[in-house]
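Protein Record: Sequence and Backbone Structure Tokens
======================================================

Structure line: whole-number tokens from a learned vocabulary of local backbone shapes, matched to residues.

Purpose: to set a sequence beside its fold so the mapping can be learned.

___
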Amino acid sequence: MAYTVAIDGPAASGKGTLARALAAHFGFAHLDTGLLYRAVGARMLDGIEPLAAARALRADDLDPALLRTQAVAEAASKVAARPEVRQALLDFQRAFARRSGGAVLDGRDIGTVICPEAETKLFITASAEVRARRRFLELIAAGQAVTEAEVLADVRQRDDRDMNRADAPLRAADDAVRMDTTEMGIDAVLEQAVALIAARIPG
């Protein structure tokens, strides 16, 4: 059975945490598509041309532990705004989405561009301040020296780039279910999402 769950939303909205939890609950495969752009961004920081990096991307390049720095996040947002890079990564994502056994993909344009025919589409959001606080705590826990004000400024800049880029801007698909996690814990969000998906799975 091929069943696709497409989860979109801005940075630090909780979509990645939800995607991993849903994949574990249903036994689906999970792809954090942001890691694709982070990997390309990291290679760009190493001096490799972004399109060449995207075309040469391998599964081994998607190590979250190496790609969660602030510098890589900023580079990822920049390369993601390049249409030729997005096109180079399109087939990889679509093939993953239709694999047998089900798949959960999270990113910025899954429900609108990558998987417009996904059986379930979710758009996860939260206030910029709450998202910045979450990301700040993650970075501090990882030993990075940042201030919360710096992280908030970066979150707002990334939102602006993601929502206003010419190619595949961040927006909710017309048929996506929107969830605001500003004042919701992950357990409550997961409970709602599980019920929604379970009601749609054939049989």
